[in-house]
Specification:
This protein has about 375 residues and is an alpha+beta fold. It is built from 15 helices and eight strands. It is globular.
């Protein structure tokens, strides 16, 4: 199974055996006892698709436009992934020229889709701008692991630190995460489609939307202005019955000295931001009252009253969504009971993390050190 770099790093502290790691944000339909339970699960996933909240929160999230992604488009991506990438390891998948495997009707379809998407992206990519593109549910953030440019981006990120810092595990993981984030910056539709075709996350989401639930299919390309976010300034919030009950550092494999120092200020700002600018716009009559919400804090080196806060995205309030520094199994009560607000950040560096990284990640480090 292919995971995003962030997802792989997050699982390091949990990895006790050689069992395949899992992306906890993946849709899952196993473990249910009836078709009704599966349907209820799928409904919760679809209820927080971008189309359901983007207009409600348009003034507090990144500038966004959408582009049609039809059921036929979805079926094309599903077929291409199954035929070309399914069950391929990362090294093999990275070397595949998938376009060479297309038949003529598929090549024509991809060309038309590329033209359609380029036109929609131009609102952000013209004048040397950049965009971030996802589908209605999730992004293709696992795909950069399959693209060689990630190695170059990692080298560039590491080069911004001095020689001593470059040898530190924490610095290397920060740079890997930053490279994975920067790899999502796109300027043309061809790059987007390449990422999407290679992405297992996209494949899984399209199976749910196009195969499991075609009667309610409503997927789009979600095109957003690319806003730089530091890897230590992204946070996962937990909303239960309309209340923000908990908050966690999103990239919890890294230690950030400034985050620890600003923890209380960040907690206060995000709580106020949610209460004043987010909560009133998601009325119970129109939107689920239990959900996961990701925040970004930008310009954090300025005075805290000048910080810019964003809503990144919403996800279903389900154990299949990564709980960050909270355990769904052991700490669900902290997320669902009126027991005060809980905020967790990594308090100190985690020595030894690099030795536990997945082989695909260690390969990047080895290649860049050679």
């Amino acid at each position: 199974m292919t995971e995003s770099l962030a997802d792989q790093l997050k699982k390091v502290k949990l990895k006790k055996s050689a069992e395949p790691m899992k992306d906890f944000s993946n849709p899952k339909t196993m473990g249910f006892t009836s078709a009704k339970e599966i349907r209820e699960y799928e409904d919760k996933v679809l209820d927080v698709n971008t189309e359901r909240w983007i207009q409600l929160l348009s003034d507090v999230t990144f500038p966004t436009v959408t582009c049609p992604f039809t059921l036929d488009d979805a079926k094309l991506f599903i077929e291409c992934y199954k035929r070309i990438f399914d069950n391929k390891d990362a090294e093999t998948a990275m070397a595949i020229d998938w376009k060479a495997s297309l038949v003529s009707v598929e090549r024509e379809h991809v060309a038309n889709l590329t033209e359609r998407l380029d036109s929609a992206m131009s609102v952000f990519t013209k004048d040397d701008g950049c965009a971030f593109v996802k589908l209605s549910s999730r992004s293709a953030k696992d795909a950069p692991m399959l693209q060689s440019r990630l190695k170059d981006m990692y080298r560039q990120a590491l080069g911004k630190f001095n020689e001593t810092e470059q040898k530190q595990e924490n610095t290397k993981i920060i740079c890997l995460l930053q490279a994975a984030f920067d790899a999502m910056r796109v300027t043309c539709a061809a790059d987007v489609i390449d990422m999407f075709v290679r992405s297992e996350r996209v494949y899984q989401d399209l199976l749910l939307a196009a195969i499991n639930r075609p009667e309610v299919y409503d997927e789009h390309f979600v095109i957003r202005k690319f806003i730089p976010i530091d890897v230590d300034m992204e946070f996962r919030g937990f909303v239960y019955q309309g209340q923000l009950t908990a908050l966690s550092q999103y990239n919890y494999m890294v230690y950030s000295e400034r985050l620890v120092a600003k923890k209380d200020s960040i907690a206060n700002r995000i709580q106020d931001f949610f209460k004043i600018s987010v909560q009133p716009k998601l009325p119970s009559a129109n939107f689920p009252q239990d959900f996961i919400i990701d925040f970004a804090v930008c310009d954090v080196e300025a005075e805290d009253n000048l910080w810019k806060l964003w809503v990144i995205e919403l996800n279903p309030f389900l154990s299949s969504t990564d709980g960050a520094m909270f355990s769904w199994e052991h700490e669900r009560h902290l997320l669902t009971e009126n027991d005060g607000f809980h905020f967790r950040v990594v308090p100190r560096p985690k020595p030894g993390s690099l030795t536990m990284l997945p082989s695909s990640v260690r390969a990047i480090l080895k290649d860049t050190m050679s």
